[in-house]
């Protein structure tokens, strides 16, 4: 836990510095440091609280920096890490190579593609040897969740391009919701200006956001997981900083307004950060420790829809019925059936009583074999008899 927290915070901080540097490389130092400041208080990154998203973003930014510096081998290594950090990011990695090919920089494309391809092949082979599958990913589970209709419609991701994509919260603070429109207007203005000036950094961030939007919103049509808006969010932050500085530079009378808008955006960002523990998450460690005390089995089987903390703090073997860990559950998830775990006869079942678990509690298999054993906050532990 401590290591992942350190990586999360370190990658977030390095991402802000990298964002400032890539804009400075295009001659936009002031916009870069404003973007860095806003990025450091970005509510979506604060509310994600996980290292994958901040690592994913800093790798995108680092790849853009190496592109600007024409360090093609280093860029290829970073793109390999990017594709490893999030498997669907291979499209972003490919976009860098396509850009070089379109500019007829074939030698540069080859230099970058070599470590990218080699790194990704080695990683894929290692995964196959260690896990038995070359592409272990939660993507299939998320698509099954989409098909079930229980996580919104086929295009629910696109509906999240609102305060949700900025704040990372389904119920954003009113101040955060208020700044979304000026943020988007400033970001679009800044991006158009950067494109007209043939700059690279901000248009590259816009292309990354567009690729992810098309990938998640139209092709995969994934549910609204707020960390999937990270690339879009980063483009908005950088574009807004650029747009505000550019507007102030073009019109002197706008300087005070630009400074005030920057301050309002900062206040809105800070207001959107939710520092309180996520509801219902705190007792999971207590659940894990209770199960370890209750059983003599070296690795008791535990079914749960939220299993991260339980898996970390206990010696349990987890039965995942949402398909993220066990692909055998995916066909059931696709049909909106979340009772698959009963076929595995786990020793314990942990539930918070949400709609996902309603059908299981009505099953004869459940009522015949499971009894409540302990309660921690909203969580109930059922034990197989």
TrEMBL record:
Signal peptide: none annotated. It comes from the Bacteria. Keywords: Membrane, Transmembrane, Transmembrane helix. The chain crosses the membrane at residues 55-72, 78-102, 109-128, 175-195, 200-219, 225-245, 257-276. Pfam families: DUF2079. This is Glycosyltransferase RgtA/B/C/D-like domain-containing protein. It comes from Mycobacterium intermedium.
